[in-house]
Structure formats: C-alpha cells, structure tokens
C-alpha cells in the first residue's frame, strides 16, 4: 500500500471518541450524586459518586456524548481501557509505523528539524510517565492528572512545531504525516506512547545483539565459563560481575551457549548491529 492510499484509508477509518477516564470525569463532582456505570455487557456500578471503586476510576473510560440523566441518576456508558487499547493497536499497528518512518525521513532535511524531533521524543517520554496511572496512588491522581494534561499539551505543541519546520523547509502547505495523525488527543497520546515503545524496542534489541556479538568474539571464554560453572545461574552471575553485562544480556549469552558462530552468522549479526545503531542514533538520549 502506498503512503497516499494508506493516509486516505486512515482518515476515513472509524475514530473512537472517548472523553476521559472516570477519575478525571468525577474529580469535581458532588460526592453524593447518584451514578449508574454501564458497559455494553451490563451495569457494573450503581451507587454514589464517592463510592466508586478506585479500580473503576482508573481503568474505565467514558464514551463521549452518551452520558445522560435518567430519573435523577446519571447514566454513564464506559469501556475498559484494555478493549480501547486493543482496537487502537489493531488500527495503528501499521499507520503509526508509517507516520514515524516518514518523520524519520524528514529529520534528514536539516539540523533544525532533527533538533525539533529530539524535543518531540523527550516530551513524548514525559507524557508517557504521567500516562501510566497504575504507578500513582489514588490520592495523588488529582495532581498527576493536571501534570499529565500539561505534558500532553506540550507534546502536541512540539509535534505541531516539528510539522511547521517541515512545511517551511519543503514548501509543503500540509505535511502528510501530520494530516494523518489528525487532532484527536487520544490518537496523539497513543502516538507519543508508540514513539517511546519503538525506542525501547530498539534499545532492547541493541542490548541483545551487543551481547551476542561479544559471545561470538569470545567463544573460548564463554565455553570455559560454562564448563567451570556449577549451573547456569552461577554462569550468569559471573558474566554480570566479570564483564558488566545486564541480567538480560547475560541470559542471552547463556541461551546461545551451544550455538556455533559460522562466518555468515557473524556477518548477519554485524549488519543488524550497524542497522540498529543507525536507527537508534535518530533518537536523543532519554
């Protein structure tokens, strides 16, 4: 699929409209308001706003435009965030990858665009920190929500600044990847998370490949260590202590201990390492 066709399909696809999660929605409500919370499978809470369990507040999101008053009770249709995320992942697994790849192509235009992209990545990382509700106690969510909204706004401003620089440098009236992302805050927030997850996958893969490359170049040491260790745990500890490997890297070396490394295998690993280094050098240090 060409980028132009993909972008048209993306813009025509069904959008998911969610206002906010329950905690944000009820933050300033009168605590004795009578509430009914329901999913498409049925009612999950019926009572006062002050008694809504924290798990519901964290994990359920309100469908925009569907909250209604019925006989003195607020009826609130919601959906669990896992269901939302699953659909977003299915919809965006290709589209976000294409958007990011087009941005990475654009940062080669000049140093100002590359610098602006670095700012985007850092603001995405800041926003993702506040997006992880489970890492904060319920009593801290009020302050964290304000900080999250601010960091969300900053990320959106930064992605717009990056797009504006690309417009200026290329003479385009509209930048295709920015048009494709649209202005839905949920989608933009998901894209911020995608950027950071992509960076994490690159760094994890690089960490793995560096360990395997070392094992290739030091086969004798690996075999000797394995032969003289009482078990794999002891061997892993020695790799970490003697060669400063992480737990992940040490385990990777142990898992490869019975594999021979012919020349063609070495060349493949060297090529992948070079490719990973080139990709990760597009990103700033976080």
Describe the structure.
With 286 residues, this protein is an alpha+beta fold. The protein folds into 3 domains: 18-81, no CATH class; 83-197, no CATH class; 202-280, Topoisomerase, domain 3. 65% of the residues lie in helices and 11% in strands. It is built from 12 helices and 6 strands. The chain has helices at 3-12, 22-26, 54-59, 81-106, 111-131, 141-170, 176-181, 185-217, 219-227, 232-243, 247-255, 263-280; strands at 18-21, 34-39, 42-48, 60-63, 68-70, 73-80. Strands 1, 2, 3, 4, 5 and 6 form a 6-stranded mixed β-sheet that branches. The longest helix is centred in the C-terminal third of the chain and has 33 residues, at 185-217. It is flat, with a radius of gyration of 24 Å. The two termini are 33 Å apart. The relative contact order is 0.09. Residues 1-17 have low confidence and may be disordered.
Count of alpha and pi helical runs: 12
Tally of distinct domains: 3
Task: Let me know the average pLDDT.
Answer: 82
Poorly predicted ranges = 1-17
Task: Tell me how many strands there are.
Answer: 6
Which class of secondary structure composition applies to the elements?
alpha+beta
Sketch the major β-sheet.
Answer: 6 strands, mixed
Strand content: 5-15%
> Helix fraction?
55-70%
Tell me the span between the first and last alpha carbons: 33 Å
The helix-strand sequence is HEHEEHEEEHHHHHHHHH
Q: Compute the CA-based radius of gyration.
A: 24 Å
Gross geometry: flat
